[in-house]
Amino acid sequence: MLTTASPQTPQQALDAAGLTARHWVVFGVIALVLLADGMDITIVSHVFPSLVREWGVGPAQITFIVTASFVAMGLGAVLAGRLADRFGRKTLTIGAMILLGVATAVLATAPNVEMFALWRIVSSFGLGGVMPVVLTLLADLVPSANRGQLVAIVSTGVGLGTTCGAFLAGAIIPVAGWRTLMVLCGIIPLALILPFLALVPESPTWLVVRRSAAKAQQAMTKLVPRSEVSPLHLVAPVGAEVDTGAFGVLLSRRFAVTTALIWTYALIGLGLQMTIVQYLPTLLQAPVPGLSTGQSSLVVGLYGAASTVGNLLLGMLLRKYSRFSVVGIFLALSIACLILIGTNPAMDFPLLVLMMSLTGLVLPTVLGGTQNIFAAIAYPARVRATGVGAGSLAGRVGSVAGGITGGTIIGAGLGFSGFFLVLALPVAVMIGVVVGLKTDARRHGADGPDGGQVDTDPLQTTEDGPTEQRATPHMRV
After folding, report:
1. Are 88 and 206 in contact (CB under 8 A)?
2. What phi-psi label fits residue 445: left (phi over 0), alpha (psi between -120 and 50 degrees) or beta?
């Protein structure tokens, strides 16, 4: 029990209390928010066939909408992350959910493709802002030893959301039309705002840094029973008051290498993810392997379902083992799967189903949101949202580049097996990036589960201005 009145940072108090039942309530609400976010990410792709029939929309217009949406998501992520570090994670999450919900619902009123594109871009700003900020909030609210695990597991909500969106589109569009689907997809995030407001607290660390110790105490009561929280004397982490811009911290001498590596990881990872998602159905229905529409849909569905299992497995392993080792092993297994597929172009359908399911278990798990785990742990709390958001921006840039690269690979005539064999090379580069992250973290004493950023900020104020200081291990109460 937390029965001491000695000064503690909020993170020290959370670490001492451990996971409580209230943490799981918060976790559940955030998982639902990410499910709604994931649903909206891909829902428009199910609407495009209707737009082609209704408005005669061509490939160039669809490409513009998709590309502009990804750019808006990236800009929304970095902007929301920066604002969240200044005005609060909870406030910005709600703002992004409102923007996402309203703009998505308004899509139903679009009279032409131009207005549809405009409202989709607006909704994409909210769409991009929700994920990095709400993941940062979760990272701030849980014990440091559980941070990587819970961020990994809750991220499965995005994948489940894309699956739910596909089923929802299949059920609603034939009966009520795409406009009804847009209204419903706009209402869902808006409906989640009330439980989010009631059950999820603001980050106690952010509150106490902003000189709101009383509000930080109130936030703690939503995570730990009041009888255990009331004696706490919460204080800000040492050095957290240093007025250095968030991007200044990310690009400081202490974090420059970490930031460059996380951005590289995100750019390659999400670029490959988008390449596979965009072109997998087309490749499966090519002359080799020559699957039917039903067969290719089954393969794609099993690939996606396996990725959900893979994320849960990743989360469980992160509870016991180093994030660098676990991600590195998943990447190595991904390369093995890619080589097996790439060197066996004549696989029959049952073997192809098996291989794609095994690949789905590891590859999309580390291509998707793994950079969010690295960023949430690497950066101190006061710039964490900016760090996660900036990584998301790099990933969205990679998504745009991935779509172009995938088309180039297909145009080269490499076929299904050649396509996957080529992907093994950038995945190998990602292993090198993980090795670099581990080396840099070890050099700064930040390779533990909390990244070494719990109780002290790496930028301390001296007579000569901000200087770097290694973080000290946090105290146990």
Report:
1. yes
2. left
